[in-house]
Structure formats: structure tokens, C-alpha cells
Design goal:
Elements (H helix, E strand, L loop, with lengths): L1 E6 L2 E4 L4 E9 L6 E7 L6 E7 L5 E3 L7 E6 L4 E6 L8 E8 L6 H4 L7 E2 L3 E6 L1
Parallel strand pairs: 2-11
Antiparallel strand pairs: 1-3, 3-8, 4-5, 4-9, 5-6, 7-8, 9-10, 9-11
Length: 128
């Protein structure tokens, strides 16, 4: 069984920073890409960022470009999300995800339907 465990969420003031981590545990696991999505109350789950292990390409949602950075270590099945210049609208539960489905590139990696495994989520709250 594959488990994704997020950590690093919390409460921060607007303009501050947080770093989320996600580690994969369980059976021997490999993925094409890992990513982060978020869900705010009353809103649909939204793509945040993804990283392709094949060529280490990164993808970002428009609302976080220039502020968030995704990175990771494929060998360790670990991915990070550095979040800077946080805004109250970044408040959400952040979910780590991983996938090895057919297809690759922006069209697939930015879609939650492509991913197979999901963490339980970590709460990020940004106060104004």
C-alpha cells in the first residue's frame, strides 16, 4: 500500500512563508510526476504545482506563479512546496499527489484526474 504523508502546514501571517513536505511510504513505488493541489472551503480543488521526474519540468497554477516553488527528490520519493509571499486567499487544505498514468506534460500533470495517489492533506491558514 502506498501512502503519501504531508507535513509543514500551519498558521502564518500574510507575506510570510511556509514549506510543505510530502513523503511517500509503502511498497516499492515510482511515479512519473508528483504535485500539489489545494481546496479552500466552498471551492473546488485547485491545481497548485507539479514536477516531472523525467526531465524535472515544473508546472504552476496561475495564482501561485512567482511565489511558490516545487522541488523534490525522486530517489527518495519526496516533494516539497516552498510558499512565499503568502496571501489570505492561499488558505486551504493542501494535498500531495503522485501518479504514473499514461500521458505526460502540462495537460496531464495539471489535472487531478491524472493522479493515482493522494495524501490526507495539511491545513495552511494565512491571516491578514
Amino acid at each position: 500500500q502506498v501512502q503519501l504523508v504531508e507535513s509543514g502546514g500551519g498558521l502564518v501571517q500574510a507575506g510570510g512563508s511556509l514549506r510543505l513536505s510530502c513523503a511517500v511510504s509503502g511498497r516499492t513505488f515510482s511515479s512519473k510526476a508528483m504535485g500539489w493541489f489545494r481546496k479552500a472551503p466552498g471551492k473546488e480543488r485547485e491545481f497548485v504545482a507539479a514536477i516531472s521526474w523525467r526531465d524535472r519540468s515544473t508546472y504552476y497554477g496561475d495564482s501561485v506563479k512567482g511565489r511558490f516553488t516545487i522541488s523534490g527528490d525522486n530517489a527518495k520519493n519526496t516533494v516539497y512546496l516552498q510558499m512565499n509571499s503568502l496571501k489570505p486567499e492561499d488558505t486551504a487544505v493542501y494535498y500531495c499527489t503522485a501518479g504514473n498514468s499514461a500521458g505526460g506534460g502540462s495537460y496531464y500533470y495539471t489535472s487531478e484526474r491524472w493522479y493515482e495517489y493522494w495524501g490526507q492533506g495539511t491545513q495552511v491558514t494565512v491571516s491578514s
